[in-house]
Amino acid sequence: MRTSKGGQSALLLLDVVQILRREKVDYAVIGAFALTVHGVVRATTDVDALLFTTPGRLAKLETPFRRAGFNVEVRIAEADDPVSGMLVLRDDLHNRVDLLGGLRHLDPGVLSRTLEVEFRDETLRIIGREDFIAMKCFAGSPQDLLDARSAYHAAPGPIDLDLLRTVSRRFGRTAADRLEEVLAG
Predict the structure, then answer these.
(1) Which of 33, 72, 86, 120 has the most crowded CB, counting CB atoms within 10 A?
(2) Helix, strand or coil for residue 165?
(3) Residue 185 pLDDT > 90, yes or no?
(4) How does pLDDT run across 16-49, given as a tens digit for each residue?
C-alpha cells in the first residue's frame, strides 16, 4: 500500500482503484474528495466512491481487498436503504475508503458524465458536478446541502440546470425541493 501514516486516505484510494480496475468494476469518486475537484476544499478523514455493480458482486469484492492487505467491513443494506451495500476499507494506519455498492434512483447516465482527473500519476473517475449536487440534495444532511451549495457556487462555468433538475427529480420530490433551495441560496 502507498500509505505511510494516517491522514492519507487519498493515497489509499489509489490502491483501491487499482483493484477495482483489475476486477473490472466501474466507480466514481464522490464526497469531499469530489467536492475538492469541483472547486471547494473540505477536510475529511475518508474517501467515498460509488461502485457500479450488483450487491452480489459487491460482496465478492471482499476477497481481493483482503488479499491485498485491507481491513474490510461489509455492510449489508436494509430493504429500504437507498444504498445497496457498502465495503469499508481500512489500512493499519486508520486511512479509510468507503465503497458504496450502488444508489437507488441514480441516473443511468452518471458514469458517462464522470470527470477523469490525474492524481499521483493515476487517472481517477470523479462524479460530474450536476450528479454530485443532485446526490447531495438526495442525502440531505446539513453538511450535504452545504456541499451542494458550495459545488454550485464554485462552478467555473455554466451548470446544465436542465440536467441538474432531471437527475435530482429521479431521487424524488424531497431531493428536487432541496435542489431548488440550493439554487435559490
Answers:
(1) 33
(2) helix
(3) no
(4) 999 999 999 999 999 999 999 999 999 899 999 9
Amino acid (1-letter code) at residue 81: D
30/135 Cα distance (integer angstroms)? 9
Q: What is the distance between the alpha carbons of residues 123 and 8, in angstroms, rounded to a whole number? A: 17
C-alpha atoms less than 13 angstroms from C-alpha of 152 in its C-beta half-sphere: 23
Architecture of domain 1-127 in this structure: 2-Layer Sandwich (3.30)
Sequence-distant (≥ 6) Cβ neighbours of residue 20 within 8 angstroms:
26, 27, 51
How far is 38 from 126, CA to CA, in rounded Å? 9
Residue from 52, 46, 44, 53 nearest 73 by CA: 46
Cell numbers 442525502 correspond to what residue?
139
Diameter over CA atoms, the chain: 48
In the chain, ranges of CATH 3.30.460.40 domains: 1-127
- pLDDT tens, position by position, 139-179: 999 999 999 999 999 988 899 999 999 999 999 999 999 99
Closest alpha carbon to 50 in 116, 134, 135, 130: 135
The number of angstroms, rounded, from the C-alpha of 54 to the middle of its chain's C-alpha atoms is 16
Q: Edge-to-edge strands of the sheet including 122-126?
A: 71-76, 85-90, 96-100, 46-52, 26-30, 122-126, 115-119
DSSP character at residue 128:
-
